[in-house]
Amino acid sequence: MPRNIYDDILSDARVKLTELFKDNFRQQGFFGEKWVATKASKTNKRGRGSILIVTGAMRRSIRSMIRGMAVVFTSDRPYTALHNEGGNFAVTVRSHSRTSKKTGNTYTVRSHSRQMNMPQRQFIGDHEKVQQALGDIVFKRLQEFSQHLADDFNRH
User: Fold this and answer.
1) CA dist 81 to 64, 98, 101, Å?
2) How far is CA 5 from the centre of its chain?
C-alpha cells in the first residue's frame, strides 16, 4: 500500500526539524539568538567554550517520533526541559566541612536547600525558520502529489 501525503510530510518534517534543532547546539543558540553563558558553563571539562555540551549526553538523548499528525521531541534526561524552557529549581547542598579564612577554624555546614535559576537556552521549539522549513516541505510534497495525479490522469 503506498504511503499517503501526510506520512511523507511528517517523515520529512521529522528529519528536517531534527537537523535544525541539532544545529542549534553547534551554533550555541536558538536560530541565531545566542545562549546566555554562566560561570559554570563557559568551559567544559576539555577546556572548550561550549555552553550546553559538556559530555554531549543531552544532545544525544533527544529523540523525535511521529505521533498521530505531529512530530514529537523527547529526552530521557530530566534536565533537558529545564535547559530548553529555563526556570527556578531547588538543589540540596550536602553537609560538608569548611575552613574559615579569617580564623583558620574548621566548622561543619549543615545540609540545606538552595534555590537556583536556570536561564532559558532553547534549542527545540517553534520559530520562523521552523515554519519556513515546514512550509517548504508541504509545498514540495504537494507539488509531487499534484504531478502524480496529473501523470495518472494522462495515462488513463
Assistant:
1) 15, 34, 39
2) 27
CB-side exposure of 34: number of CA atoms within 13 Å?
Answer: 5
Which among 128, 143, 147, 153 is positioned nearest to 9, based on CA atoms? Answer: 143
Radius of gyration of the chain (CA): 24
pTM here is 0.71
CA distance linking residue 79 with residue 91, whole number of Å: 13
Residues present in the chain in total: 156
**Per residue in 91-114, pLDDT tens?**
899 999 999 999 999 999 999 999
- Give pLDDT tens digits for 15-67: 999 999 988 888 888 888 887 776 655 555 555 556 666 677 888 888 999 99
Residues 62 and 147: beta-carbon distance below 8 Å: no
Q: For the chain, how far is it from start to end, CA to CA, in angstroms?
A: 21
Q: How far, CA to CA in Å, does 143 sit from each of 1, 9, 61, 108, 140?
A: 21, 12, 35, 71, 5
